[in-house]
Design brief:
mainly alpha; Fic-like fold; Arc Repressor Mutant, subunit A; two-stranded antiparallel ribbon; 15 helices; elongated; nucleotide-binding
């Protein structure tokens, strides 16, 4: 036993196993060293800069939709999803039966749902369960009680491993049913420590409790974003912390495990603050590049001579859908095929759009410079 919790025996005889019973948050006497305090200051500063920048850029919602998709891709890749950014932006995605793409699309829908729902609900277990139901709808894991906390023991380990071979066994159901209300209370009532330290502890605790049969990692990382927004450190979901966690995936899991092993929360908090700082810097860099690209290309568009300018409308559409085909674009913009084709050709002539197929029919076009910024680290 240590300050993070203790392993407890379950069942007797040959079937006995030990699950982890976490201590409630916050840990006693959390002491950050000078390096961690400096990191905390820097992470808060970078987050504040990002928050300001995100509110000042034109077409904020266009950028937001792409940021949510990038975080969706990163967080799903951590779980082993084999999928690229181009896959989830494919205009034929609705006819694509790729389950990996479905995982990412569901995350986007779950994140958007949770952000809107937070206008009515606090950050609570009900919200997490509702979000989980959307995350798991119609994809792998849909048979594992979407939207419900587990009613049986789960475990973590290599594919196909048994309870006896597990790398980690989360709390048994009884302990989990005590731990989740305690976590909910901590999220909403306890203000000790800086908000970034609190969210580090919250993410660790959620991952340790593992309250769902599947999808815990993705919900746990979404919880980071939701808490940052709930605490008003971010007004828009323009950070992808999974970018850093994916790059340092082995260390990410090892540091969470170290808290359970030794009760050393401090080393985990330090790592988490590094993740937030790096993610904020990276997101800021992307916003600046996308804003410059937006302004530069907007300046070379032909001046509008009509009340409804289809070239400008297509350009706006591209920043949410940087890979397009003409037929679906015409439907989305509610114009004729020929009108959409003419607008696409104008953007090709201006070197904004590039055709990525060599086909007479079903041609695909990409906003390559925009995609190059977003593809980084995916």
């Amino acid at each position: 036993m240590n300050r993070a919790g203790a392993y407890v025996n379950n069942i007797t005889g040959n079937a006995t196993y030990q699950s982890f019973r976490p201590a409630p948050l916050p840990p006693e006497s959390l002491e950050l060293n000078s390096d961690s305090v400096q990191l905390l200051i820097e992470a808060n500063r970078e987050l504040a800069k990002l928050n300001t920048a995100a509110s000042l850029i034109p077409s904020t919602d266009l950028f937001v939709s792409m940021y949510v998709r990038k975080e969706a891709l990163m967080t799903s890749q951590i779980e082993g999803t084999q999928c690229t950014l181009d896959d989830i932006l494919d205009p034929d995605m609705d006819t694509n039966v790729n389950l990996d793409v479905g995982d990412v699309v569901n995350y986007v829908n779950a994140a958007q749902y949770a952000i809107i729902r937070m206008q009515e609900l606090p950050l609570c277990n009900r919200l997490l369960r509702e979000t989980h139901a959307i995350l798991m709808a119609g994809v792998r894991g849909q048979e594992k009680n979407p939207g419900e906390f587990r009613r049986s023991q789960n475990w973590i380990g290599p594919a196909g491993c048994t309870l006896k071979d597990a790398r980690y066994i989360p709390p048994n159901v009884e302990d989990m049913n005590e731990a989740m209300p305690a976590l909910e209370k901590y999220m909403n009532e306890d203000k000790r420590y800086d908000a970034l330290v609190r969210v580090a502890l919250i993410h660790y605790q959620f991952e340790t409790i593992h309250p769902f049969l599947d999808g815990n990692g993705r919900i746990g990382r979404l919880l980071i974003l939701l808490y940052l927004m709930e605490q008003q450190l971010l007004r828009k979901p323009v950070i992808y912390v999974s970018y850093f966690l994916k790059k340092n995936q082995v260390e990410y899991y090892d540091r969470i495990a170290e808290v359970r092993r030794s009760g050393n929360y401090e080393q985990w908090v330090h790592f988490f603050l590094e993740a937030v700082r790096a993610a904020a810097v990276d997101a800021m860099d992307s916003i600046q590049k996308l804003s410059k690209l937006h302004d530069r290309n907007l300046a070379i568009l032909p001046p509008s001579k009509r009340k409804i300018d289809h070239v400008h409308r297509l350009f706006d559409y591209l920043e949410q859908h940087p890979i397009i085909d003409i037929k679906k674009t015409a439907q989305a913009l509610d114009v004729s095929y020929n009108t959409a084709a003419s607008a696409v050709q104008k953007l090709v002539d201006l070197d904004i759009l590039h055709e990525t197929t060599n086909a007479a029919r079903n041609r695909i076009f990409a906003y390559q410079e925009y995609l190059d910024v977003l593809r980084k680290d995916t």
